[in-house]
Design brief:
By secondary structure, this protein is an alpha+beta fold. 15% of the residues lie in helices and 36% in strands. The chain has two helices and eleven strands, in the order ββββββββαββαβ. The strands form three sheets. A four-stranded mixed sheet has the order 2-6-7-3, with no helix packed on it. A four-stranded antiparallel sheet has the order 9-10-8-11, with no helix packed on it. A hairpin with a 3-residue loop joins β6 and β7. The N and C termini lie far apart (46 Å).
Length: 148
């Protein structure tokens, strides 16, 4: 089976099928419009999205009256940075920007993929953080630029 469009997201669908199969995807793969995946029931699928959009956790790839196939994003190994004031936020944002590390923000937290050098930097700067396995809402993406 080849999936060419997303039906919707399980969080907002009014009508659901009684049985759910899951496709487990790493957050890095959410940006891929073309990929091959396998459901938790062993069913192979090709994804070839016609629209230019990324996959999201909870996206419904297939649905009929008895079954639906839903994307589930695997948890990432991340550092959850919790600066206590604007000074700490500025310091760590500047340092991470110099390293071109992508970050995401949820509430008062900055999320970055785990890196032992970043962890050492946070310890040196005495910025509160925790390392955890956590499901992110979107892929960590680099924003392209040059120093020309």
């Amino acid at each position: 089976m080849v999936i060419e469009k997303i039906i919707g997201n399980i969080a907002t669908l009014e009508k659901r099928a009684p049985h759910i199969e899951k496709v487990y995807i790493e957050s890095d793969h959410l940006v891929k419009r073309v990929q091959r995946v396998v459901t938790d029931h062993g069913k192979e699928l090709g994804i070839r999205l016609k629209e230019n959009r990324e996959l999201l956790d909870g996206d419904v790839l297939f649905m009929d009256e008895s079954n639906m196939i839903v994307v589930h994003v695997l948890a990432d190994d991340i550092l959850t940075i919790q600066p206590i004031d604007i000074q700490q936020m500025g310091e760590i944002a500047h340092q991470l920007g110099n390293r071109h590390l992508p970050a995401q923000f949820e509430g008062g937290e900055m999320l970055v993929q785990y890196d032992y050098l970043v962890e050492q930097l946070l310890q040196q700067l005495d910025i509160p953080y925790k390392r955890e396995k956590r499901k992110v809402k979107q892929a960590f993406k680099h924003i392209g630029h040059s120093h020309d």
